[in-house]
Amino acid sequence: MLTITKDDAKRFILSKQGLIGRHRFSGKDGAYQYVRQAGCIQYDPVDVCGKNAELTLQSRVKGFRKKTLYDLLYLDRRLIDYSDKELSIWPREDWPYFSRYREASKAHGAGFPGIPELEEQALRYIRAHGPVSSETLPLEGKIFWHSSMHWSGHWQNESQASRSALEQLYTDGTLLIHHKSGSRKYYDLAEKYLEPALLTAKDPCPDEDAFLEWRILRRIGAIGLLWNKRSDAYLGIRMDTREREKAFGRLSEKKKALPVQVEGIGAPLYLLSQDQPLLDAVLSGRADVSPRMEFLAPLDPMLWDRRLIEALWGFRYSWEIYTPPAKRKYGYYALPILYGQALIGRIEAAADRKAGSLIVKNVWFEENVKTGKRLLSALEKTIGRLARLNGCDGVVRQDQE
Length: 401
Fold this sequence. Notes:
By secondary structure, the chain is of the alpha+beta class. Helix content is 36%, strand content 22%.
């Protein structure tokens, strides 16, 4: 097994992520290519200074704008909103891989009295009137139901009839999200936007073992290096320790996932076999590792395994959005600051869109970070890019008051 240093591992992950050196991803095609590489990026509706998916792409894609992602999802239809690692965005060509999700959803929905009838009513209305939201679909009343897409503490909850019918048809794959207005979702028939060959394509995974292997490879590829340990990177994949270890064993035997030993870390880390040339380039000094500064999204793929981030970078990150204010160490929506190969601190910023200003509430640097002219200049430029992403013309630095 190859042994590498922590610095080697960091350079490899950052190179794979497109977070160091010259931008590997640019424009709309670049945004699509990054999602293709990551498999999926997580969607979260909270918009303090950009939604999670937008911040993820903005840190990697030169010239990225919010419209870039909107167009890929709702005009070009190259990307799809659906479940993977929780609520996610992924490439449309992966539709056949999730046939198991859709079949399980159909069986799940059929078990709730009243849902099939609501689905029929909803489909008749959509065929006649086009895209609808739960507010515009005229189905009255409530029903006991919950989606199969998410974990739930209760088997069933009382839910608005229109919302239940739409979300059930969406998880079944009968409907797609046509567009979003703020956080409100509008649905339409999947058959209007996905070609018949894609809708009827055979599942590429012949059995559950193959599907599990595909999903683990997807997670390894999303981060770059990942270990065979319990990890938040595997959220959305239902497997126990025994199943995961067997899957890693099969992937190693097939040489689809290659182990490397990182000095100072007990468990081996795995990379995709197709990423071996990139690792070789990093180890030989041929990779471009010139420094850039980027602000990372709270649910950025690189941060999916926070224990791994702490083991490699010595950086402990916790998203404090659900932490009571009195217990927060940093901010409600603090973003990690990456500068070159180091995670140097956090920034909390909020867009005041009415005033057209990005409010920088605070910046916290890690101990021993030297804030020289070059770093502070990079910080100003990166804040400026975040402001432009949010349509803000100015920046207000509350952290300097």
